[in-house]
Amino acid sequence: MKGATEYAYLFKTGQYGRLYLVSGSHARGKTFRIQVLPEGEVARGNGSGNNCLNKDAVEVYGVVSGQLGWTEVYGWLHQGKWVNDFEKMVEGAQTVKLIEHRRIEELKAKRDKEESDKISTLLNNY
Q1: pTM of the shown model
Q2: Distance from C-alpha of 4 to C-alpha of 76, rounded to nearest angstrom
Q3: N or C: which end of the chain has fewer CB within 10 A?
Q4: Cβ distance 8 to 31 under 8 Å?
């Protein structure tokens, strides 16, 4: 869903510092929510992929418009320091994904070249 897909692919549900991120999905696409936890508090997940159970946690990123399950749009419900912290997390996660993608592409290119060389050698030695 708009505003959720990119983040849901970058992060798994769990606590990241004082932020609790919830990556999920439904029949029409990805969902994503963020809660801010009180300082020093450990998130209590509920096991179903929904927001944590901490009573004082505040949802700061979630559904801002649309019909739930159909056309929802995700965005910031509250602005604060957590926005910059989350943006830094996104940059870091994107960098890790990019490095991993490049590594996989390099391995694939190496395997393809080895296979091509093997075929070439076999055919040249006929």
Answers
A1: 0.74
A2: 11
A3: C
A4: yes
